[in-house]
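When time allows, look over one protein, given below as sequence and tokens. The question is which stretches look regular and which look disordered:
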Amino acid sequence: MMMKHVFACAAAQLVFVSVGGFAPASAQQLSNGDYEMCSVYDQDGDFAGYDSVCLERKRAQLRRYQKNAASTYTAYSGAYYCPSWANNGSGYIGTVYSDGRPVSVDPYGTFDRPVDGVRCLPRPNYYGTGYY
């Protein structure tokens, strides 16, 4: 009797997965560990299938993480600071463009690269001895 119930649940899950209920393709990147956490075993210890509610929770969690990660980059329009490797964070005073534009030398702006640079705000890295 128990085995019939397990097979009926596994068949119902298979029908659910094959008929529909899929999330967007980008949100279905479940790992092997997710599937292992959602796997169901019978009393004998044999693999019976996957718990559809658990898998859907995992997919919803992935969708939520991806949505939050995407919104943090689109909603943030902060300043672009010069990277630490650009003249130790101070930036370069000018840039040369490889597409034929004239050399850009601006006394009020700094760039992140000497060739094809992008304007950035200087944030120099000060390496002191540790004493003030």
Observations:
- The CA atoms of residues 39 and 89 lie 51 Å apart.
- The longest helix spans residues 52-75.
